[in-house]
Amino acid sequence: MTHDKDTKRNPEGSFLETHFEAARQTAPAPGKDLVQRILADANEVQSGLSVSPEVSVRSAPRGIVALLQTLGGWPAAASLSSAAAVGLWIGIAPPDALTLVAQDLLPTQVADGDDATASDGFDFFEEML
Questions:
Q1: pLDDT digit string (tens) for 73-128?
Q2: Angle at 99 between CA 97 and CA 104, to 5 degrees
Q3: DSSP states of 43-99 as a string?
């Protein structure tokens, strides 16, 4: 759109603006033939969208089936349960090699739980920094 400043500098702009204004006032209407073709096409598309009676709608799975599908099926659930069992086993009865690695990482070992303070765990992190 042109402004008044533009029409003063460009007299051709005012000529175009009068024609643009006339075009804005008279909007073209689509022909009846075009409207009929559009409606026929819409009816044809809508007739294809109807749900046939043979199609059954299943409800979403619930409970353990939904959980298994979320995890990825039986293979994923078996892998997850195996990892949990191994983690529990290592937590209850850690191998000797793991105990040696833990002693190397943690410089001090507390013999009794009574000697431990709340700030003992933070010493390890301070040494890492």
A1: 889 989 999 999 999 988 888 887 777 777 777 766 555 555 555 555 556 556 65
A2: 95
A3: HHHHHHTSPPTTPPPPPPP-THHHHHHHHTSHHHHHHHHHHHHHHHHHHHS--HHHH
- Cα–Cα distance, 37 to 6 (Å, whole number): 44
Residue 69 near residue 61 (C-beta atoms within 8 A): yes
What SS3 class is residue 29?
Answer: coil
Contact (CB, 8 A) for 123 and 105: no
Distance from C-alpha of 8 to C-alpha of 1, rounded to nearest angstrom: 14
Q: Which two tokens stand for residue 85?
A: 């069992």
* Long-range contacts formed by 38-46: CB under 8 A, 24+ apart: none
Instruction: Please give the Cα distance from 66 to 3 (Å, whole number).
Output: 64
Does the predicted model carry a pTM greater than 0.70?
no
